[in-house]
Amino acid sequence: MGIMADTASQQQAEPSTAAIATRLGMNRSTGALLLAILLIGMGQELWAPFMPKFIQESIEAAKAGRPTFLSNLGLSQAAVIILAVGLFGFWKDLQEGVYYYLGGRIGGTLGTRKALIGFALLPLVGYALLLTAVTPGLATIMAFAALPFITAYDSISQPATLTVVGDTLKAQHRTMAISLQSIQRRISRIFAYLIGGALVYTFGAVMGVKMGVALSVILVLLAVLVQVKMLRTDTKDTAKRSVGFSFRLIRRFPSELKKLLVADILARMGEGMPRELFVLYAVAMSAQVVNAEGFGVFGINASTFGVLLAVQSMTSLLLYVPIGWLASRPGAQKKPFITLTFVFFALFPLAFWGLGTQFGLVGLVIAYVIAGLREIGEPARKAMITELVPQDAKTAATGLYWSVRTFSVMLAPMIGAAVWLLAGPEWVFISASMVGIIGAAGFLLFVRSKS
Hints:
By secondary structure, this protein is mostly helical. It has one domain (26-229, 249-446): MFS general substrate transporter like domains (Growth Hormone, Chain: A). The chain is 78% helix and 0% strand. It is built from 21 helices and no strands. It has helices spanning 2-13, 17-23, 28-45, 51-63, 69-72, 77-110, 112-121, 123-131, 136-150, 152-168, 171-203, 205-230, 241-244, 255-272, 278-282, 302-328, 335-373, 378-388, 394-409, 412-423, 425-446. The chain is globular. The chain starts with a helix and ends in a 5-residue tail after the last helix. Residues 1-14 and 20-25 have low confidence and may be disordered.
């Protein structure tokens, strides 16, 4: 009897697998999302960070020995590349803004299951366009043409993803579930950055990116299969179409959510100005570093840049479980974590330029640790959004939040390109940090959080 009692008490003391899964915010549907996010996210990150170099190499090859209309206007090849990269960033944000809004509308109308599975197929069209670009000039054009399809899944699925978390989990487990999704993204990105950087270093930007795209096709197909087999939840919004599926829904945002949105816009504006320019400034594709044009100033290769991105993701990865747990505790305050996120957003561009200039590769490693720390409040921020949006139209409202934010910052890459050309690349990083500081201060001073 004593042995049986000890065994029973031991079993009671030891948390069951189901209990652990519940604490971690895991169920069949969130597990399907985790796997899909891993596969699709890994596929995109194999090549996405190196697209500015892809554009640079394509333009250089297309213009070799041939005058162009832009050259006749007095623009140097470097200026053409910088403007093209800035335009690419603008185009990316424009697509994401449209898709966030459509994701809220479509996800709320069709239901989260159909939306998530259908959206996962769209990147395949973009990948086909990139893979069929056989000439340098066509490669640049296809980079822009493919983007509306490639960005579709992440942007359109975000609102539906948060709805799945909100519907299948209790409030105290949502922050941890969002943390686990973020962990999964970072795990996949670590491997993707290392592989993608090695491909670009070995085969050049154009061929390296294409090889990464080919791998992405396989991963997307696996993600679709996972969602078909495992995803079961299928939520639809209940609000009337006239209110729940239009920009008028923003009127129903509580004041604290609107303030969070403004601070978020400023933080993302500071992030967006140099976003596509980091790799241009840091990576030299050959031994020759063209300091005068601002390309490859730090002289690192693509493989090393992939390692830096992996350092960023590893830093975020190490944060998510402890921070997710701390932010999920009963009575825990989300505001301190979100404030830190905005602070690190503001610090990173300045750290990238300043520490990289002063301390070389060691300084860049520290800067990318700071970049990883930007994620410290992301689970809390997303959980706050799910709690504050109108609950009868939460998928549409979540999509509207991201859509408004993205539309508001879509000119940031073009502004960054203009600052680079008019004042010098270092001023892109300095001014980006200044904008981020304003956003962090505004959130700290004006947003009140009850949880």
